[in-house]
Amino acid sequence: MTAPQIHPSAVVAETAQIADEVVIGPFCVVGPRVKLARGVKLVSHVVVDGSTEIGEDTTVYPFAVLGTAPQDLKYKGEDTRLVIGARNRIREHVTMNPGTEGGGALTQVGNDCLFMVNAHVAHDCVVGNRVILANNATLAGHVHVGDYAILGGLSAVHQFVRIGAHAMIGGMSGVESDVIPYGLVKGERASLHGLNLVGMERRGYTRDDVMAVREAYKTLFAGGGTLADRIDNTEGQYASNQVVAEMVGFLRNKSKHGVCQPKVQDAA
Fold first, then answer.
1. Looking at the DSSP assignment, which residues form a beta bridge with residue 169?
2. Which of 15, 26, 52, 102 is deepest in the core (most CB within 10 A)?
3. Domain at 201-266, CATH from 1.20.1180.10, 1.20.120.450, 3.30.300.30, 1.10.10.10
4. Residues with active-site annotation
5. Predicted TM-score of the model (pTM)
6. pLDDT tens profile 104-163
7. Rounded to whole angstroms, how far apart are CA atoms 6 and 37?
8. Which CATH code for domain 5-142?
């Protein structure tokens, strides 16, 4: 273990908790309640403030701002937290805000994520593992993003929306409704355009899983009856398939924004 390396121009509060092997580069500012785990690297000109924890071997690039007050008019200075996991790459000008009292007081980011230039994670968001936010992708407050989801450049997700695991959000999309796991959505007001089959292939899903998900998708979004009926039919037909079960479970956990649907011509 080696002692932290702190550039002489950096401003680091005496009460900040700085682990071994941390590197704090030129002109960084680290607040009094910040915790930096082993191997964290702040390249330069990074601001980390508030009750913020950054996990092991995470690298933060210049002009990122993490843990400053949430952009919520209801926030009155209460002590809330931002917890960032291990091995993340947080690129230039990324912003992440802590939670609010009304939203659980915690914003949480998982492990092994990539946040490209100008990405934003708002208050009370929960971001899973191995998530990618491309340049200028933004999450409003209270958004939940599942593992392996990818948000394209300039996309924006409405507050309280859920993005399922392995979903793909096309660039320049405005997402106002929940996106099913493995779903592919795009458009100015995003609609469902099928499944993220390329992502499933890259992550080693079996042919049987891919076929089951494709058939389940057709049942869910191109079948007859109500969506509740179609969910029941899908669950009964594919009860033994874990991938389909994940999609069904997501749909049963309703939210006030509803589920992103395909346009008529895309439903089949």
1. 151, 185
2. 52
3. 1.20.1180.10
4. 123-124, 141
5. 0.96
6. 999 999 999 999 999 999 999 999 999 999 999 999 999 999 999 999 999 999 999 999
7. 14
8. 2.160.10.10
